[in-house]
## 1
Amino acid sequence: MADIRIANITKHFGAFHALKGIDLHVKDQEFMVLLGASGCGKSTLLRAIAGLESADTGTVHVGEERIDHLQAKDRRLSMVFQNYAVFPHLTVFENIAFGLRMQKRPDSDVRQKVQRVAELVHLEALLHRYSGQLSGGQRQRVALARALAVEPRVILMDEPLSNLDALLRLEMRAELKTILAQSKTTTIYVTHDQVEAMSLADRIAIMNQGVIVQCDTPLEIYRNPATTFVAGFIGNPPMNFVPARAVDDGVFEALGLQLRGPRGHATLTLGVRPEDLQPANEGFGIEVAVVEPLGAHTLVTAFVGEPRQVFRAALDSTEHHRAGQRLKLMPALPRVRWYDSAGQMIHGD
Ligand code: ATP
């Protein structure tokens, strides 16, 4: 078990700047998720940590040990990939034992360790089955067990659930969380799926164009997105944004309402999540364009402002709404966020 400290990792592919000075500290036993859109550099970062890609600059420490100059096999990290390479011609036992055999551990040691991780991932009854005869979820657990069997200091996973169907993915997500908490392994996990990230992570590092734009707990990122990029990326549907103009110091006009905001700014962008809007007589008027009854809530879409932009509210599903209806909405004021012209969140009153 160990923490992992990444400092100033940069990586170019030719002229393309894939990682632009990444700093990240993953605490001992922490589950850190790297989340970002396709091409943002998350796999490259994971591969650089693993030693499968050489970084241009930067250091990686596991505990007190510096590992960035070591070959991948000497870093004592385990990796689980999207295409988990489970060998179909080997039994579950031998697949799990693979890393231990490579380390030339004595037989008794191998047996004991395989048994222990097989129990952890609920494969103890299948140890003698050939891996070619397993379901996708079972194969995924074999890959995880193999990674855990060598008792790595850190386990690195790159979209390990993405080949599973939706239901199995949901099931494995919950299992993965339990298994990794029980094994007390420090984990770095790459995904582009925000729900997976929110459900698994102790903390999420959100990446965009080779930079970590915010690193915090899932709820903190959801409640206080540091930038409009993060606010638009996390949450489905994303946060609404509307322009706001100061009519007095710290008083803004937005959506035809006057709202308290941060002092010392002439124009800002107001951000409010769809679920933080309520019908209210003193609210601002919209004309409902689309109604989507989603069960837990009803999603109402309107077009507001000039130029017209999409604005969504997640409303109580017991209320009836219809397209063409005029509705007044009020944002929950403590939940309103403010962003400057560079898209950075403004704190303070
Ligand atoms: P995805 O979710 O699609 O895997 P990602 O965030 O993991 O995306 P990376 O695989 O890290 O993205 O790639 C980051 C960027 O670097 C991409 O624009 C990619 O095209 C580029 N890239 C990655 N590997 C190479 C390579 N070997 N040569 C050139 N460019 C590369």
## 2
Amino acid sequence: MANRERTNGQTPRDGARWDYSPAPEARNIVKIKPRYGLFINGEFVEPKSGQYFTTINPANEEVLAEVAYAGPEDVDRAVRAAREAYEKIWSKLPGKERAKYLFRIARIIQERSREFAVLESLDGGKPIRESRDVDIPLASAHFFYHAGWADKLEYAFHGRRPRPLGVAGQIIPWNFPLLMAAWKIAPALACGNTVVLKPAETTPLTALLLCEVFQQAELPPGVVNIITGDGQTGAWLVQHPDLDKIAFTGSTEVGKKIQKAVAGTRKRLTLELGGKAANVIFEDAAIDQAIEGIVNGIYFNQGHVCCAGSRLLVEESIYEVVVRKLKRRIELLRVGDPLDKNTDVGAINSLMQLRKIEHLVQVGVQEGAEIHQSSCPLPERGYWFRPTFFTRVSMAHTIAREEIFGPVLAVLTFRTPEEAAEIANNTRYGLSAGVWTNKGSKYLAFASRLKAGVVWCNTYNKFDPASPFGGYKESGFGREGGIHGLSAYVASGEW
Ligand code: NAP
Ligand code: MG
């Protein structure tokens, strides 16, 4: 990416960018097929619907591949395959045998991690630094972690003989395509369930590469089936009568529809939905460290993170210094080619998402908030949005209430911890929060007042498969990760 300011080998002036040479990750490690079928019963098959759709690279609008569209008959075929694999094979395998497959899958993801990282960045637009250092290692870690539980479930649930639920229908979003697939598939398989998973329409390719991993690991056919399609495919899956469990990650709007569709059926349900997290910075915090955490929390993944720290609550006494440092820091962010290892902010995942971000930012301006944007150049093709933040914001503003899911931060101020907690909790969501302070006691007292599933202290967006993740209020219910996450995939009652 061209830089605004050339430095001629000298230290750049305050606010200027270092002139880095391009450092693109090699793309040719990935072999994308021109066309992908549905992964049913251990093999790629033509869809009965006869239809295909395309997936593109949002950084340059290039078509990457054609992908099969699963219609109702295809959904049914996948559920039947999963049921048969459940009854005949998977539910009968001892935990230690299931564990071997999960270990193998984890190892193969590790071995093929560069391939996965490049493909994730190509299909979804996220910087290679994120897919390489966060998404793929965490996906592999999730399979390793659950491999460890598969033969020890009776220790996870003391006094209880855990039984699997049966067949799980799983639907995931586009922001962490492989990681969300791992979050869903690994605990289901560890507990003895079989799966039909639908990836998001704009990012199906790493889930399809994962199917090759299942083949390589010789996972018995039908244990995991991956069906690609759109929201309607997801709706058909949810409505299928022969599912025992639905696990959904996505928007609160679709989550509500799914909850209605499942009401009154035997299907168990977990929902991981949206967020509008508060990142709270007290005057005694290490400010530079906090600025890095704030930037990581909202800009590094284009704000495409359900737990993004999209509201920054600053103690009034340090408001000016924080805003000054934040302005400087967003000028230094590199927006551009997701495959470049120096890129901080990649492409917006889809044109639809870009339009949504643009609309909400326009509403912010119309409602009188003050906008601050990086002046960085943007590539000509593809979907891009400059790192942005708003000041003069109150909780009455739309941008402080609605999930934007883009690189846009709303800055608010507070005077006391009581006021900070009140603002932080003044949202229909409750997925996550961040607290920045030098005082452990202050953190502990403050965190206990927050109605959020995860509260990070002096850091942000840190994940571990052993740590449960999930929301309060309209951020959903159920947890993923840790023992809590396992409990969503075992039958209750047998204590
Ligand atoms: P979305 O529109 O709700 O879509 C999520 C998934 O549901 C996609 O696979 C989508 O298919 C499918 N879908 C759409 N309509 C459906 C319906 N009526 N029935 C069944 N499935 C349907 O959400 P998104 O825009 O992809 O993702 C962004 C949202 O996910 C944000 O709100 C974010 O906060 C949330 N999220 C939450 C977490 C968490 O752990 N809490 C994690 C990541 C993201 P198509 O893509 O093909 O339309
Ligand atoms: Mg794509």
